[in-house]
């Protein structure tokens, strides 16, 4: 059995199928870890959702910010944005089945890796001040709320950048919003772990006093997998943790990338998307 981790699909279904073919992926034998953002911006979000869901237990995906946006538009009263490509999914005959499946996906997955090192995957990363135990508890807290009776209220109120800093005494929607932002939107943070959202490009766009989350040390040593940050082009310079960036910008004309978790070998197929 081989496990492959694949970066953000963003509706790039043709590239996903091509990459699985290159890997000779067999769901009876192999497994996939996907970094989230299965949908939006690309042309075939609906096909991506159907493809991953059909793989059953052979595929594990975490939730990304675009996945959460789809759920908010469909079930939380959110409004579509000008650049969204979600119309076909929202109009699909199997829409509710797909949304039910998506809504039960986790925000964090982990398992034993090489030696004593844990492999951990989230969409955006992991705050350096959070232990793995604390992060898992907080991811579970979010997942429980998303699967609860008041999920629609949560989805409607999840948008926003505040509070930017974590506090143990955060409660209610402020606590949930911060957790969503950590797991699905984090890029730059300061030394206290406060989030910054204005800068979305490469490392040279870092505001004064902020750095990429992976340039801060941790007290433990997991192997961290994340997507979300296409501008990194799969690179994590000056990292101070064991980390792999897997979103190589397929939807923006880059590549779709998979990594063999046993060997660390990467495989990529070129994007079929055209962007000015």
Automatic annotation (TrEMBL):
InterPro entries xrefs: ApaH, Calcineurin-like_PHP, Metallo-depent_PP-like
EC number of the protein: 3.6.1.41
Catalytic activity annotation: P(1),P(4)-bis(5'-adenosyl) tetraphosphate + H2O = 2 ADP + 2 H(+)
Entry's transmembrane regions: none
SUPFAM superfamilies (alphabetical): Metallo-dependent phosphatases
Sequence ranges assigned to domain Calcineurin-like phosphoesterase in this UniProt record: 1-127
Similarity comment: family membership: Belongs to the Ap4A hydrolase family.
Function, in words: Hydrolyzes diadenosine 5',5'''-P1,P4-tetraphosphate to yield ADP.
PANTHER family reported for this sequence: CYTOCHROME C5 (PTHR40942:SF4), PTHR40942
Official protein name in the record: bis(5'-nucleosyl)-tetraphosphatase (symmetrical)
The species this protein was found in: Halomonas korlensis
């Amino acid at each position: 059995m081989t496990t492959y981790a694949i970066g953000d699909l963003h509706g790039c279904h043709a590239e996903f199928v091509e990459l699985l073919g290159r890997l000779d992926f067999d769901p009876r034998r192999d497994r996939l870890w996907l970094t989230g953002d299965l949908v939006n911006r690309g042309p075939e979000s609906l096909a991506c959702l159907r493809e991953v869901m059909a793989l059953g237990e052979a595929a594990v995906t975490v939730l990304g910010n675009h996945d959460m946006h789809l759920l908010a538009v469909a079930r939380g009263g959110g409004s579509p944005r000008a650049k969204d490509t979600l119309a076909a999914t929202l109009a699909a005959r199997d829409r509710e089945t797909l949304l039910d499946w998506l809504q039960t996906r986790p925000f964090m997955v982990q398992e034993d890796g090489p030696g004593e090192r844990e492999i951990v995957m989230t969409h955006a990363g992991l705050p350096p001040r959070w232990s793995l135990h604390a992060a898992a508890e907080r991811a579970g807290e979010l997942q429980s709320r998303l699967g609860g009776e008041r999920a629609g209220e949560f989805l409607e109120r999840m948008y926003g950048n505040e509070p930017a800093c974590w506090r143990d005494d955060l409660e209610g929607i402020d606590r949930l919003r911060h957790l969503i932002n950590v797991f699905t939107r984090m890029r730059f943070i300061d030394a206290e772990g406060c989030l910054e959202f204005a800068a979305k490009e490469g490392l040279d766009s870092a505001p004064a006093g902020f750095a990429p989350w992976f340039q801060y040390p941790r007290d433990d040593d997991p192997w961290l997998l994340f997507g979300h940050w296409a501008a990194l082009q799969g690179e994590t310079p000056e990292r101070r943790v064991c980390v792999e960036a897997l979103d190589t910008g397929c939807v923006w004309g880059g590549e779709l990338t998979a990594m063999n978790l046993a060997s660390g070998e990467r495989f990529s197929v070129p994007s079929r998307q055209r962007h000015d």
